[in-house]
Amino acid sequence: MTETIHDISLDSGFGPIKFGSPPSVAKQDWGEERCYEEWMGGNLENFLYFRGLLVGFRVECTDHPTENSQVCMFQVKIVNPIRLFGKEISRVSKAEIEDLLLSNNLKYRELPNGTLQCKDRKLQFHFNDGNLDEVYFAG
Fold it and tell me: What is the C-alpha to C-alpha distance for residues 39 and 127, in angstroms, rounded to an integer?
């Protein structure tokens, strides 16, 4: 069985989930049951959560996103294969992410905790033992 590789698109969204989608469409497009994992932390009323994925919403959220809410951000834990700019980045080093950012003309800085943060886009890369562990991006 081959795992699906989900693409990060800074303009469109993540895999089948598009920026601006309401929660019902995001759930249908992802096609998996919601799943809470320890890394997600608490206070998730503006999110849908799936295995390895937090989907954030803006506009109207009470104790959960309503149908007037819209997808605005993703936090992706590296548990499944993902691709950015056509390159699989699931098991890459910080140096490989830096090369990918530079080759796509994205300026970045390294935060004190080792996170790489793009300057002109809402895009961050978190590492564990020098390898990519998590990607955050927003539209």
Answer: 14
pLDDT at position 45 is 86
Which pLDDT band, with edges at 50, 70 and 90, does 1 fall under? Answer: very low
Classify residue 99 as left (phi > 0), alpha (psi -120 to 50) or beta. alpha
Domain ranges of the chain: 1-139
How far is it, in rounded angstroms, from Cα 24 to Cα 77? 22
Measured CA to CA, the distance from residue 75 to residue 45 in angstroms comes to 15
Could you tell me if residue 122 is left (phi over 0), alpha (psi between -120 and 50 degrees) or otherwise beta? beta
First to last CA, the chain: 32
CA 111 and chain centroid, separation: 18
Cα 50 → chain centroid:
12
Distance CA 82, CA 84 (A): 7
